[in-house]
Every structure is written in structure tokens, then in C-alpha cells.
Design a protein that fits this description.
alpha+beta; Ubiquitin-like (UB roll); L,D-transpeptidase catalytic domain-like; 5-stranded mixed sheet; 4-stranded mixed sheet; 25 strands; peptidoglycan synthesis; Transpep_catalytic_dom; transferase; transferase activity; LD-transpeptidase
Length: 451
């Protein structure tokens, strides 16, 4: 046998041996994973699906997960704590079937490891729920988040920044744990899962409201009442302004009412006695009558609150009022009736324009003292009472109860003590000739001081 034939025989035998080894090895990879196969950081080369499944089950059930807060361990748990009991056979078989068993030599020679990945890991939801409920996530020592808010201090409105807090958002923590369990990760940082404020200090609406509240509380507001200036102090105005739960600016109308009532008590004249410089008796006290003015407090409250909000009409305000004599009170044109002296004067612009003796009410129906005013002028009137009906040429009523100034042609004399015997029912009986003149020069609205 020639050398050439011997060489061919040996080569054929060697080839058959190689083919046999290659084929035999390939056949073993029908049930085993190829060399250099990794799954979830586990080397599963040359292992069967059954073997790998057991190892993975053991690995996941004993796998330790660590949750941290601020870089420090808060708690840890294993796969069995949360109910990981998966059978990975199906996923492993799918991976195995996708491998080319005939490529085993190439896999051996390659430097690169083939990394495979399982489908997401499942867990027992009831087991997980029980585990989650026992975690140290809730504590009275944790700080709850707070929204930025406007605070009223002793002197202004401040925007207090939000408080971030460290109270966990349990829904987000739960979702993070589940995501970690289902992935290949083992460490979970919980730093991003705190409850958070919903309103921050840079909120444009909060800034706007804070600025507006401070602006309103620093307004200059004053009243000019009968030449007297009343300024609302900054401290008082600040006390009027507050915010409700929805951050609406509130002006306390009760406090505004209280302030305006103080002014009304101080300045209103309708219910007050007056010091009056009389012609014969010097300074006398004239009790209140129908003459005078008073604040319309409720109307002024509404007006002032509205003007504060619009920041208009705030300097030298004239209050809403009703009555007579605002700004001048008695002035220099008035009627003076001196009951003691049974005399009447009419002053016009500070000068006596007319004077006369009169007869006032008898003791049983006295003429009431007080500050009144002529509220009507009626010629040829008929005065009616319970037991009388008297025509007069000139009638000027001064109160709401039938008292007035009128001519009295039935009186033969005036002054002195005649009122004690022939006095009126309360009116001021005046000589007809004088009454005609007074009627001509005393307009409606003229104050009448009776004392």
C-alpha cells in the first residue's frame, strides 16, 4: 500500500472523528445551552433547561433587594418575601430553541459572551401586598409637604415657601418596588418618591395676591369731616385686610363698620345737644331735635370697601350722610327762640334781621326745646288738633309733631308771662305783621334753636 493511500485513509479517519465529535457535541446541545451563555448574570453554559430553571428559582427566591433613602439602607427583602415563585421553563425553552446547536465551536472560540434576558418576573400579589403593608414607610416623625402660602404677620403679608417634607408617596414607592422586582435591578433609591407640594413660592398667582394685599394695606385713606381731618392709620387698615381659605382678599366689613360708627358718634350732630351762643343768656345747651346730620354708616361701609379695592376716592372723603347742616351746622342764618324771655330773633348772615316777642306753649302743652329747622312754608294753612281747627296766613313747621311758627291774630299781646295763661298748643305764636316779614325772608332749611 502506497504512502498516498495510507495518508488518505488516516485523513478520512481523522475527518470522521472530527465530524463525529462535532456532531456528537451538537447533539448534546439539543438539550443544553451553548457555551458562553449568560442569563441575568448567571452562567448557564452546558446546562439543561431543567437545571437552569431550578437555579433561577433558587436565585430569585433568595435574591436580596435593598431599598435606600439618602444613600442609607431603609429596608431589604428577598424574592420569597414578595412571593416570587416563577417557573421559568417556558422562557428558558424559548431561549434554548433560538440557539443554533451546530454553532457550538464558534461560540467556544468567540470572546464575546451571549447574554440572554428573561421575560419580566412575576410575583404573588397578595404576598406582596402583605409585605408592603409592613414596610417602615409611614412615621409620625416624617415631615409632610406643605404648599407655599401667604402668611399675615404683624405688619405685612409674606409669601412663605413650600415645605418639601419627607413623607413617601406610597403609590409611587409601590410602583418602584414592582418595577425593580420585575427587572434585573436589586437596589431601589426611594429619594424621588416623596410626596411633593403642588404650589411653590414662584407661583405667579400667589405673588400677585401677596403684592396686592400689601398694596391695599398701605393705602393712605382720610376723611375731611366739617373741616376736621381723620386719617385711617396703617395699623388699623392692616387689621381690616385678610385672606380667606381660597386666598381671596377680604376686607373686614365689621371692623370698617366699627370705625365708621366711632366717627359717626364723634361728628354726627342730630342726636347731640349743642352749645349755642344765645342773644340774651350767653352760652346755652340746646337739646337735640330734628335738625342735624348723621352718618349713613352702612352706605359708607359699602362705598369705602369698594373704593379700597379700586384704590380710588380715598383722600379727604366726605362720608355718606343724611340730615341737615352738614359742614356748617347752625351757621350764621338761623331763628332763635328764647322760651324764658319769650322772644324770637332771626339772624341773617350773622346780623339780626328781625326780632319780636312771642307766645309759646302753655305749661300743659309746652313748646319743646331743641334744634329744629323750617322744613316747609305754607301760606293760608289750617292748623288742626284734637279740639281745634285754626286758619293762619303763614305756617312754617319745625318738627314732625305739629309744632311750628305762625301768625296769631287772636293774641292781643306777646312776651312776658302770657304763655302761662294764653299759651299755645306748642307752636310759637308770632305777631301777624312780623310773621309776614319772617315768612318772606326765612327759607326752608333755616335752623331754629329753641331753648
Amino acid at each position: 500500500m502506497s504512502f498516498k493511500k495510507i495518508a488518505i485513509i488516516f485523513s478520512s479517519i481523522a475527518l470522521l472523528i472530527v465530524i463525529g465529535i462535532y456532531t456528537g457535541k451538537a447533539l448534546t446541545y439539543q438539550t443544553k445551552f451553548l457555551p458562553k451563555t449568560m442569563i441575568n448574570d448567571m452562567d448557564i453554559s452546558n446546562k439543561t433547561v431543567f437545571q437552569v430553571n431550578k437555579e433561577l428559582q433558587k436565585s430569585y427566591r433568595g435574591k436580596t433587594f435593598v431599598a435606600t433613602e439618602g444613600g442609607m439602607e431603609l429596608f431589604k427583602f428577598t424574592g420569597s418575601d414578595v412571593g416570587i415563585t416563577d417557573d421559568f421553563t417556558e422562557s428558558l425553552t424559548l431561549i434554548k430553541d433560538q440557539q443554533d446547536q451546530w454553532s457550538w465551536p464558534i461560540r467556544i472560540l468567540k470572546n464575546k459572551v451571549q447574554k440572554e434576558k428573561l421575560e419580566k418576573i412575576t410575583y404573588n400579589k397578595e404576598t406582596f401586598a402583605g409585605f408592603f403593608a409592613g414596610l417602615p414607610l409611614v412615621s409620625a416623625n416624617r415631615i409632610k409637604p406643605e404648599n407655599a402660602k401667604i402668611e399675615k404677620t404683624e405688619s405685612n403679608f409674606n409669601l412663605k415657601p413650600e415645605v418639601m417634607g419627607n413623607t413617601f408617596d406610597l403609590d409611587k414607592v409601590k410602583a418602584s418596588l414592582i418595577m425593580t422586582i420585575e427587572s434585573e435591578e436589586t437596589r431601589i433609591s426611594l429619594d424621588d418618591y416623596y410626596q411633593k407640594p403642588t404650589i411653590y413660592k414662584d407661583n405667579p398667582e400667589l405673588i400677585k395676591i401677596t403684592n396686592e394685599a400689601n398694596s391695599l394695606s398701605k393705602l393712605d385713606i382720610s376723611y375731611l369731616i366739617v373741616d376736621q381731618k381723620e386719617t385711617i392709620s396703617a395699623e388699623r387698615l392692616f387689621q381690616w385686610i385678610s385672606l380667606d381659605a381660597e386666598n381671596n382678599i377680604v376686607i373686614d366689613e365689621d371692623k370698617v363698620t366699627s370705625y365708621l360708627t366711632e366717627l359717626a358718634t364723634k361728628y354726627s350732630t342730630k342726636t347731640k345737644s349743642r352749645k349755642f351762643v344765645s342773644t340774651k343768656k350767653g352760652i346755652v345747651d340746646v337739646p337735640p331735635g330734628i335738625y342735624g346730620w348723621t352718618f349713613l354708616v352702612n352706605d359708607e361701609v359699602n362705598s369705602l370697601v369698594a373704593d379700597i379695592r379700586t384704590k380710588t376716592n380715598l383722600q379727604d372723603r366726605e362720608p355718606k350722610h343724611e340730615g341737615s347742616g352738614y359742614g356748617v351746622d347752625i351757621g350764621k342764618t338761623y331763628v332763635e327762640v328764647d322760651l324764658t324771655n319769650q322772644h324770637m330773633w332771626f339772624y341773617k348772615d350773622g346780623v339780626v334781621a328781625l326780632e319780636t316777642d312771642v307766645v309759646t306753649g302753655k305749661p300743659t302743652t309746652p313748646t319743646p326745646p331743641g334744634a329744629f329747622y323750617i322744613w316747609n312754608r305754607e301760606p293760608n294753612a289750617i292748623l288742626r288738633g284734637v279740639d281745634y281747627e285754626t286758619p293762619v296766613k303763614y305756617w312754617m313747621p319745625i318738627d314732625w309733631d305739629g309744632v311750628g311758627i305762625h301768625d296769631s291774630n287772636w293774641q292781643s299781646a306777646y312776651g312776658g308771662n302770657l304763655y302761662l295763661t294764653v299759651g299755645s298748643h306748642g307752636c310759637i305764636n308770632t305777631p301777624p305783621g312780623v310773621m309776614e316779614k319772617l315768612f318772606a325772608i326765612a327759607p326752608v332749611g333755616t335752623p331754629v334753636l329753641v331753648f
